[in-house]
Amino acid sequence: MRVAIIGAGPSGLVTLKYLVTAHHSLGTKPVEVVLFEAEDSIGGTFAHRTYEDAELVSSKQLTTFSDFRSNSDNPDFLSTERYLQYLHDYCTHFKLWPHIKLSSRVLSVRRRDGGGHRVSYINGVETVVHDCDANVPTSLHSSEFKTKSQFGIDKTVLILGSGETGMDVAYMAVNSPTKQVLLSHRDGLLQRFAPIFRVPDPVILPILGNKPDPTRLNVPVDSSSASLFDTAYVHPRLRDHMLLWEYYDFFIKSTLWLVGGSKYGLGQFVGGISDKRYHASKIFFNKSNKAMPYISAPYEKQQNSSLIQRIRSSIIQVPISPTHGRHIDLAPWPSHFDKAGTVNFTNNGRPEYARLSGETIRPDVVVFATGYTQTFPFLSPDSNYHTPSTLDTRSLFHSSDPTIGYIGFIRPSFGAIPLLSELQAQLWTLRLLSPSSLRPLSPKDEAHYKLHQEKSARIQYGVDHESYAHQLALDMSATVGFWEVLKMGWDSDKDMEGAWYKLPLVWALGANFNAKFRLKGPWEWNGAKRVLVEELWDTVERRGGFFAGHITLSGLPMLVFGTISLVLWMLDPLLVLFEGTGKKGGKLGKKPGPKSVM
């Protein structure tokens, strides 16, 4: 079989690795694979569309692949430079370089007579045709912003867009010799945790002078979920119901308010997301929030003037980073620029409009941080190719044509695309080379992992990270049960000290790491247990106290959801019988929810 991959970002590289090495794990014939990259180096967005001082907003525990881990001396959140070095080392370790064609821009992909596809690309000045049996496009987007010097000196900077890139650029601008920095939003923003995407560790009784421990680094949020009774051993009726979403929605809003004074984010006193959009089942968390203290600074005094806020913050408070007298002006979305270059903002009825309405603002620099639109100009329109918006199987391929796979074309509410891309690459490779290794890919399992975006939302490919990862693992029969993991830990203890209890606890209390799904199944790997016991045990051990630790992140959800699932498993025969009589009501499971079942 011949396969073409388009794009040498993390998703393309991990797909290349699984296709190149598939015959070792699956016993199939070797696959002839070529990866085409238009640029002169690998890395995709991280290499060619990054900017000064950029760092990943997802933790290294989730952005590194299962069988090639980050160096232990790396911080939880890698800089783009370190991540690019990791990707280069990954290619070297798995001998991927001979399969990669750099400076090779794909011009067209069309169906070939007799089956398969024909890829035309340009390498330098020569146009080449490459026949193959499958093709995997990866994501694209552009940015011209690179360094702080582009802001100039004593200039007014307007950033359009309040996503992660917009927040990064605003933070860089306010820490440059600029005159004024404005961040414009359409309908509010949602900041999860500050100053970086870690589980919050509030100070108890700061009124007594208590201070945070500067040496303590709590676990990254994307590595803090407990999987037992959240995705593992969840009854299908609970999995497909809104109850799980409602619990996490309440937990997020109440915790944020309790430890930070705002249900929209820690120290976020302005620009909250609209109530229509603010629900755990709909949102993407903005994980780049170092700019938030600067945005809230003009409103902080008013926020802290209320009696209830003074009482709350004297009892418990996550410290807010100082701004040293600088601030960012939050602004509504512009309606237009007049001939003099003055920006006119839409009256959104919010405090930021009233605050700026008397000012005349003429930006010197405008940065568009408005996201991107997925386009595939190389796909031949007369070949009727499906695109990500029309896929019907695991947000990965269409059931009518599994030879076209889209790896990495999903967005988790929080989590990391590289981990999901690895699981997608595993499943898609199995579908191509060994479809009998897969469980039936039931359409009934599609809805529960998808976010419930509004129809008007630009992004319609959101997923719940934990649920989606677990579903893909289930499809590949790569999930392990409680007794299995207990036995694995006991059998491994002579080789890895403490494995008898660490492995089961990481399995139960840890997030759905990709290494967890290589303990068994078609991609079983001997090193998976060591990764979980010796590296990822740290994510369980580092959890803090009541608000940032095992009680709220593990104990309460496991108690609530475990009890509900247990009752449902016991009552299921009666519920089935009751439903069979044609009576309505009493059925838990009418709305799609976020989680999966073991």
Automatic annotation (TrEMBL):
The keyword Lyase does not apply. The chain crosses the membrane at residues 556-578. Gene3D superfamilies: FAD/NAD(P)-binding domain. Keywords: FAD, Flavoprotein, Membrane, NADP, Oxidoreductase, Transmembrane, Transmembrane helix. It holds the Pfam family FMO-like. InterPro entries: FAD/NAD-bd_sf, Flavin_mOase, Flavin_mOase-like, FMO-like. One of its GO terms (molecular function) is NADP binding. Belongs to the FMO family. This is Flavin-containing monooxygenase. It comes from Cercophora newfieldiana.
